[in-house]
Each structure stands twice: as C-alpha cells, then as structure tokens.
Inverse folding.
C-alpha cells in the first residue's frame, strides 16, 4: 500500500469519525456557547494527538519488543504523559473559557478517570491498527518476494530450455551434414524458423496454443528428416485450439525427451503424440519406446523434464496432473492442464 493511499485512508477515517460529528453538533445546537465549542475542538484535537503519539512513537517499540510487561509499562508511561499534557491544557484554558471546567466539575476525579480510560482506549486502538498494518505489509512483502522468486526461477528455467534444445538439434543437423544429406538445407531452414519463434514469441509467460503447435510441428519436421521414416511419428490433435494460451516451449520438452531417449528400431509408430483440448482441460500425451526398462524416476533426470516439471509446479500449483510411466519399455508422459490452463499467472 502506497503512502499516498495510507494518508487518504487516515484523512477519510478522521473526517468520518471526528470532523463530521463535530460539525453536526455545532449545526444542530446553534445556542452552544463559545467556551463549549472551544472545549469540543480541544478534546477532538487531543484525540488525534493521543492516537498518533501511540501510532508513531509507542507502536514501533511494541512491534520490536516481544516482552509484554515492558510493552505495558511503555504504554502506561505514554498514556500518563498524554493525560498530563491534556490536564495541563484544561488548567490553561479554564480561565479563558469562563471556568467551565470548575463550574461543571469537568476536572473531578470521576471525569478524569473516564477521560483517562477513553484516551487509553484510543491509544490501544492505535497500537492494534499499527500492528495489523505491519502484519499485512509483512505478509504482502513475503508474497511479493515469493512471486519475484518464482518469476526469477521461471526466467532461469526458460533460459535453460533454449541451449538444451539447440544442443540436441544441432547434433541432429550435424549428422545430416556429416552424411552430406540433401536434407541438411531444409533442416537449417526449419531450425531458423524455430530460432525466430524462440527469440520473438516466447518473451511472455503465455503464447497462443496455435503458435506453440506450429513450433512443435516444425520440430517434428526436423526430426522426420533425421529418422528418414515419416510413419515413425504419429501426431494428432483434437479440439478447438483457438483462444487457448499455454506457457511457451512447455509441450516441446516432452516431445524432445521422447526423441532423445526413444528407441529407433521398433514397430511404427515409434513415437505417438496426442493433443486434446476439451471444454475445461487440455490433455497432452507422448509415448515412445525406451532402450531399456529403466524406472520412470530414472528417465526424468534429464534437464528438459526437470525444467518442465518445475515450471508446472510454479505455474499450475493446483491445476495440473503429470503422470510418467515406463511399462514394458514403453515410456509414457501424460499431462493434463485443468480449466485454468488459459488463465495462469501473467
């Protein structure tokens, strides 16, 4: 909360609580004598003095010190000091106000006890308000720090994706160049399109699913040049993808992992990719055959899947399901994004 807003809240509060009642009292009782008007303004002003004396001077000590007895003694000293100042003001003003304090027993013991109680109550309220504000500000600060840490971590994770992806892709193109394949120029063209997407389209937290799938399809075309068998890859989508937004490069990580760890000499299709967009969720599945029957936990040790798992935890803490299984050398990744998948943190 900015200081300007805090000042406006204070001004509005006192206008409603003190200023308006005083104005209404003066207008509703036109026969109110001048001494009583001055008395009303004086007590109203001292209410503000007592409040802010406690708010600015006593409250900081109470917030720093956790010992109740010390806090109580400091509060008692502050309240006594305020009452001494207030009573001294009564005695100074009394001759100027036609001795109304003596005439109406406003300086009697009963009156002073009631006045001291009211003043102490105002000061106690000031401390409670300051403690509540401090608690709210600390809570907000912690939330901002967590959000900042998440944003920083997401930026680092996203930065790690590109080098990891390019490392694998350049290896693929190198193999084509080494074999003097005629597909090498086309592979470089696809890579340039992928690089353009990564440089200019992935700077935001969300990208249209349509663009993400175009990028994914470019990657698949690049892989098809390497595997030499188009039927090795089975890729299908279902549902309306318009108006859907996803984190950039999220889906690619699973596909890339399938090509990196997948077994080549298997019955087609060796890699199966399915995307389904429903009314309130998105399902994405990637299946490939592994070189051996390693447990799923072992398969997740790559940088790509570690990153995407962490990104899902940060962006979809309670609205995603990620299931990874490895049964009979068939490695399967199933991701479900719940109905919030098009409205995550921006």
């Amino acid at each position: 909360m900015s200081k300007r807003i805090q000042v406006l809240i204070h001004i509005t509060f006192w206008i409603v609580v003190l200023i308006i009642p005083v104005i209404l009292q003066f207008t509703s009782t036109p026969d109110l004598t001048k001494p009583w008007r001055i008395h009303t303004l004086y007590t109203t002003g001292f209410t503000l003095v007592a409040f802010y004396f406690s708010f600015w001077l006593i409250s900081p000590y109470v917030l720093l010190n956790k010992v109740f007895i010390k806090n109580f003694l400091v509060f008692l000293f502050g309240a006594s000091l305020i009452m001494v100042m207030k009573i001294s003001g009564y005695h100074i003003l009394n001759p100027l106000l036609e001795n109304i304090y003596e005439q109406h027993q406003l300086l009697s013991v009963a009156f002073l006890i009631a006045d001291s109680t009211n003043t102490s109550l105002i000061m106690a309220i000031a401390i409670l308000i300051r403690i509540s504000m401090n608690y709210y500000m600390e809570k907000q600060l912690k939330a901002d720090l967590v959000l900042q840490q998440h944003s920083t971590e997401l930026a680092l994770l996203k930065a790690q994706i590109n080098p990891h992806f390019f490392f694998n892709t350049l290896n693929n193109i190198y193999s084509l160049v080494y074999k003097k394949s005629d597909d090498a120029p086309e592979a470089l063209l696809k890579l340039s399109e992928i690089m353009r997407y990564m440089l200019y389209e992935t700077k935001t937290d969300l990208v249209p699913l349509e663009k993400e799938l175009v990028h994914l399809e470019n990657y698949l075309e690049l892989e098809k040049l390497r595997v030499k068998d188009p039927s090795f890859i089975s890729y299908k989508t279902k549902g309306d993808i318009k108006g859907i937004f996803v984190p950039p490069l999220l889906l690619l990580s699973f596909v890339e992992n399938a090509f990196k760890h997948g077994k080549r000499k298997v019955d087609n299709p060796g890699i199966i990719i399915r995307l389904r967009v429903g009314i309130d969720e998105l399902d994405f599945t990637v299946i490939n055959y592994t070189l051996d029957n390693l447990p799923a936990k072992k398969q997740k040790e790559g940088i790509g899947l570690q990153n995407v798992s962490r990104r899902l935890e940060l962006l979809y803490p309670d609205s995603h399901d990620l299931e990874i299984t490895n049964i009979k050398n068939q490695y399967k990744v199933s991701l479900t994004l719940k109905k919030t998948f098009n409205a995550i943190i921006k």
